[in-house]
Write a structure and sequence with these properties.
The protein is α/β, with parallel strands linked by helices. It is built from 12 helices and 27 strands. It folds into 3 domains: about 250 residues, Rossmann fold (3-Layer(aba) Sandwich), CATH 3.40.50; about 140 residues, Glucose Oxidase, domain 1; about 100 residues, Immunoglobulin-like (Sandwich), CATH 2.60.40. Strands 9-8-14-10-11-12-13 form a 7-stranded mixed β-sheet, with helices on one face. A hairpin with a 4-residue loop joins strand 8 and strand 9.
Length: about 550
């Protein structure tokens, strides 16, 4: 589909199709980009290009963002062809639309959202959606600060994109935002750098020290130091404007220095790469958390993938303040978000499909979920950005492991009928389900929400387990995609007080037997209140098929 700045000749063996849709905008969000996107499939923002290249870009040696993160850019699946669709509005697809795609055999993979770290912030949580959380990687960035008293702060998990040459390391006066407040400006606004809150005469030529970064680059300041304990580990692209982040402890020490002298000064050193960063992977601060508001009887997110400081291709843009002097616009950018995590899973799913062409989308999803990594590069359980052990409402079943997913041993096939049953259990009217699915499906006679836990999903979630009632049984069916005549033995890992039993404890796949069902019972009389997490793992000597469970005991 040609547009004002996009021709058919722009398509190739990688970009195999492109369309755009111009629909009147009904949201109240930022619409400043629409003028350049209307009437063309061209990506003017860069988000789509960046994510597409993660999933299916070509291999590029010596890729970097002005020397940062230099190496060979590798895509999730280089032989994958892309069909790009450009929407000139904020698109929010309905779960019913996603279901239709899934019914057509299309794997629907979506971001978990960037509204973490609070619970119940996750989006895209229908069971037919593969919901992806974001993690960091074992590469970080460092932008050190040298104070006038000689104190150096090694900001190991801070970040700034400044590209000053070695002879340009300059020391500038340092000012706290509240001390540079404009006339009649509340101190709280100046401390947080609200637009118009700073007196430009008080910040020109200085490095500004603030507790929130709202606006400062346009004040003719020489740099910014931000206190942000929560997001200090999330890279932020500030172009050529010197910028770095510190945590609360370092922030208090810098503030103490400012208050100790009449002429505080500071130097922000250029960004350098920190290789082999630990711990990684760890769930990103911004990654939205479960449980899902739609239903707590499906565990969400499903899985986690790299989404912090991801280097990927963009369309070069020569915008003021983004390109270092004497440099050309970069063909790569470093971005963070669950939007960056999602295409890692997309490309990996396509990679698995290219090897196992007869596998359904639910088999691929199951293979990725049951083989996910649950340990970091310190051989410790996955953590969050505060170095606390992460739970499945943050990381799902764990970090994606593409190669291991090629040979999962067993898979959970979630069929269209299971999804239709989900709609029945959720309370959708039968006539609406028939209309949406274009079938004559009949809902089970007993259709209550707690039965959602019984749909054949690769993980298990129970929203309410009454400790005063008998054990609750959950059924699952697995399909053998490994060796014939194999036997799997169950191993349960459960928290203290929660009784979890599996029947049978042994799954035997004799000749001609491809599918076997089992039952998991949960009894919570002695369990602690709230969510209890654990797993059931099936072993055959070669494969480990891990099913994570999440049980809310009341």
């Amino acid at each position: 589909m040609e547009g004002s700045d996009f021709k058919k000749s722009n398509c190739n063996r990688k970009l195999i199709g492109a369309r755009y849709y111009n629909v009147p905008v009904t949201t109240n969000g930022d619409q400043s980009h629409l003028a350049s996107t209307s009437g063309s499939p061209r990506d003017s923002v860069g988000h789509g290009t960046h994510t597409a290249s993660i999933a299916a870009g070509v291999q590029v040696p010596n890729a970097s963002y002005y020397g940062l993160a230099q190496g060979t850019a590798r895509e999730a699946h280089r032989q994958l062809g892309l069909h790009a669709t450009r929407h000139a509005w904020m698109l929010v697809a309905l779960p019913s639309e996603h279901f239709t795609l899934r019914q057509m055999g299309v794997m629907v993979i979506c971001s978990a959202g960037n509204d973490g770290p609070n619970p119940y912030t996750i989006v895209n949580t229908a069971p037919w959606i593969f919901t992806v959380a974001a993690s960091n990687i074992d590469r970080d960035f460092q932008s050190n600060i040298i104070l006038g008293n000689g104190r150096t702060f090694t900001v190991l998990i801070g970040f700034c994109h400044q590209f000053l040459q070695s002879h340009s390391f300059k020391t500038y006066p340092l000012v706290f935002g509240k001390d540079a407040a404009g006339i009649n400006t509340p101190v709280s606004e100046a401390r947080n750098c609200y637009p118009g809150s700073l007196d430009q005469k008080k910040v020109v030529g200085k490095i500004v020290f603030v507790t929130k970064k709202l606006v400062v680059a346009d004040t003719k300041a020489k740099g910014l130091i931000l206190i942000d304990e929560a997001e200090k580990g999330v890279p932020f692209d500030s172009g050529i404007f010197p910028f770095t982040e510190v945590g609360n402890i370092a922030g208090l020490q810098i503030l103490k220095y400012i208050n100790s002298t009449q002429k505080p000064t500071a130097t922000i050193l250029p960004t350098v790469v920190v290789p082999q960063y630990r711990p990684a992977p760890a769930v990103a601060f911004f990654s939205s958390r479960g449980p899902a508001q739609l239903t707590e009887n499906i565990l969400k997110p499903d899985i986690m993938a790299p989404g912090v400081a991801v280097l990927a291709a963009i369309a070069p843009k020569n915008e003021t303040g983004t390109v270092p002097n004497g440099k050309k616009p970069s063909k790569f950018s470093i971005k963070s978000g669950t939007s960056m995590a999602c295409p890692h899973v997309t490309g990996t799913a396509a990679f698995i499909k290219s090897v196992h062409r007869q596998w359904t989308t639910s088999m691929i999803k199951s293979a990725l979920m049951t083989t996910a990594t649950i340990y970091n590069n310190m051989k410790m359980p996955l953590t969050d950005n505060s170095n606390h052990f992460a739970n499945p409402h943050e990381v799902g079943v764990g970090e994606i492991n593409p190669l291991k997913a090629l040979n999962p041993g067993l898979v959970f096939e979630t069929k269209i009928e299971n999804y239709l049953e989900f709609l029945c259990y959720y309370g959708y009217p039968e006539k609406n389900i028939r209309f949406m699915s274009n079938t004559k499906f009949n809902c089970p006679k007993i259709s209550i929400e707690e039965l959602i836990s019984n749909i054949n999903y690769p993980s298990i979630s129970i929203s309410k387990l009454n400790r005063r009632q008998p054990a609750k049984a959950i059924k699952r069916t697995v399909t053998n995609v490994g060796a014939l005549n194999s036997t799997y033995i169950a191993k349960v890992q459960a928290p203290v007080g929660l009784t979890v039993s599996v029947l049978p404890e042994k799954l035997v796949f004799a000749e001609g037997v491809r599918r076997v069902s089992f039952q998991v019972s949960f009894y919570g009389k002695e369990a602690r209140s709230g969510y209890n997490f654990g797993s059931i793992t099936w072993f055959d000597g070669q494969h480990s098929v891990r099913t994570v469970f999440s049980v809310n005991v009341e």
